[in-house]
Design goal:
CATH topology of the largest domain: Rossmann fold
Protein name: GMP synthase [glutamine-hydrolyzing]
Bound molecules: xanthosine-5'-monophosphate
Distance between the termini: 42 Å
Structural class: alpha/beta
Enzyme class: ligase
Helix content: 40-55%
Strand content: 15-25%
Radius of gyration: 21 Å
CATH class of the largest domain: Alpha Beta
Binding site for ATP: 29-35
Largest sheet: 5 strands, parallel
Domain GMPS ATP-PPase: 2-195
Organism: Tessaracoccus flavescens
């Protein structure tokens, strides 16, 4: 039977055998998979690893800092940060279509990552790229060597010809709960290990309407309140995901403080699920919902209404965009 300890030991031996004294690159997203994969590689080969974090400015409150500060402190990884929030938000100006948002964010991400990887390759000569592929992804995509996300036997699909690395996938034998156990074993921050799934395009697809710095700030604050209260009620591990959505194109009349307001609604979308393919709306206790609602309308600028989405998937999706 497996334990987190012997999974770590095995993974480390495998990585050392594969990498030897060559150099490795890993992109961190803020999520548990890339964090655990990077931490394992760090334990195996230390200073031969360089991590890259593209900060697109679309993460939730505290998440970028968690990568830049807490993760680095715990693991000791050599981290290169590309602070590109202005570039991403600039590229999203005037865009309201959800798929267009995804396309733009994907494009900017690849550009940023490629430029950073090319610099590092020139400086240090990189041979390997870490990916946080899990066992279910391997099975789903046919089970071949590095089957997820890559086209041929050794090369990473999507990267240009002059920038090809061999993949290392230290999580390819693990399920999600095993990844979390390994993360805990490695001493990673709790919030990182138990983080709910979070979409790559981040908060950009939780603002229905154009993405602006002010709206991001408002949503970030509302989302932080919802997460704080869910954690305080010890319900965060019972919930699959809890999107908090800002309806930036909708206004409704409210009465706050001295008088009439004309602000935006926030939608709470807590769901239960096993795999995100189907989902049900989570029956959160009224007291928790009440606390979240009153805090959001009190603490978030321009928000005068909080609603709860009670749609299952199907017909609704988990995200609003
Ligand atoms: P939906 O909204 O389709 O979401 O029910 C299913 C799961 O996928 C996540 N999701 C995304 N993840 N990039 C991602 O990395 C995306 O563009 C994206 N869109 C949705 C969503 O959070 C849920 O877990």
């Amino acid at each position: 039977s497996w334990t987190p300890e012997n999974m770590v030991t095995e993974a480390i031996e495998e990585i050392r055998a594969k990498v030897g004294d060559r150099r490795v690159l890993c992109a961190l997203s803020g999520g548990v998979d890339s964090a655990v994969a990077a931490a394992l590689v760090q334990q195996a080969i230390g200073s031969q690893l360089t991590c890259v974090f593209v900060d697109h400015g679309l993460l939730r409150k505290g998440e970028a800092e968690q990568v830049k500060n807490d993760f680095v402190k715990v693991t000791g990884v050599d981290l290169v940060v590309a602070d590109e929030a202005d570039r991403f938000i600039g590229a999203l100006a005037g865009v309201t279509d959800p798929e267009q948002k995804r396309k733009i964010i994907g494009r900017e991400f690849i550009r940023t990552f490629e430029a950073t990887a090319r610099d590092l390759d020139g400086e240090r000569g990189i041979d390997f790229l870490v990916q946080g592929t899990l066992y279910p992804d391997v099975v789903e995509s046919g089970g071949g060597e590095g089957a997820a996300n890559i086209k041929s036997h050794h090369n990473v699909g999507g990267l240009p010809d002059d920038l090809q690395f061999t993949l290392i996938e230290p999580l390819r034998h693990m399920f999600k709960d095993e990844v979390r156990a390994v993360g805990q074993q490695l001493g990673l921050p709790e919030e990182m290990v138990w983080r709910h799934p979070f979409p790559g395009p981040g908060l950009a697809i939780r603002i229905v309407g154009e993405v602006t710095p002010e709206r991001l700030e408002t949503l970030r604050q509302a989302d932080a309140i919802a997460r704080e209260e869910l954690t305080a009620a010890r319900l965060d591990r019972d919930i699959w995901q809890f999107p908090v959505v800002l309806l930036a194109d909708v206004r409704s009349v409210g009465v706050q403080g001295d008088g009439r307001t004309y602000g935006h609604p926030i939608v709470l979308r807590p769901v239960t699920s096993d795999d995100a393919m189907t989902a049900d709306w989570a029956r959160l206790p009224y007291e928790v919902l009440e606390k979240i609602s009153s805090r959001i309308t009190n603490e978030c600028a321009d928000i005068n209404r909080v609603t709860v989405d009670i749609t299952s998937k199907p017909p609704g999706t988990i995200e609003w965009e």
